[in-house]
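FYI - complex with HQG, inputs then prediction.
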Amino acid sequence: MDVVRVSKRLSFVLRHRPDSIGIALDDAGWVDVDVLLTALAGHGSRLTRAELDHVVATNDKRRFAFDASGTRIRARQGHSVAVALGYATQTPPGELFHGTAERFVPAILREGLRPGNRHAVHLSPDLATARTVGARRGRPVVLRVDAARMAADGWAFTRSANGVWLVSEVPPRFLWPAQG
Ligand code: HQG
């Protein structure tokens, strides 16, 4: 089994296109594991439950989660389909980071961080993680987010179980380039 390939397929199905294999997610993004495995098998990706467990357990960014009973699975974040993930609002650390590619910086400083196709803007708890995220798209630049002031102004932050902070948008007044 190619673990990375399976992870990418799961991300695609569980975040963006469950319909591509003929399944539907519930309101919180869950689908029965049996339903998922049967649908994947019917669309060219035969996978055992043990293999799925392995992918979920070893995923570098803990992208997927089983429910408490282990009978349902969902993506922890990153959806473009409508789901209510149900993470509690939390007070963020004083500052958070966003890694992006150099070419996006002028637009971001002008109009703020927008969620794009996803539901939320994704923020990293540390500079190194943000740089890695930014490097996916080109020469990385890290922006610092004044999360303390945003929280004080009433913006709701949630934290995914893998440490990614989510917020609906970040207006430009809370952003500035980070050094290093
Ligand atoms: C940029 C991965 C122009 C934004 C990563 C980013 C992360 C703007 C891109 C997670 C903009 C959207 C999320 C504006 C934002 N003008 N560009 N106003 N506002 N952008 O992939 O944060 O592997 O949707 O900077 O590791 O890069 O999927 O978001 O470059 O944690 O689990 O628009 O995805 O995790 O790109 O990445 P994305 P992201 P996974």
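The mean pLDDT is 95. The beta strands are 31-32, 64-66, 72-75, 96-101, 121-123, 140-145, 158-159, 165-167, 175-177.
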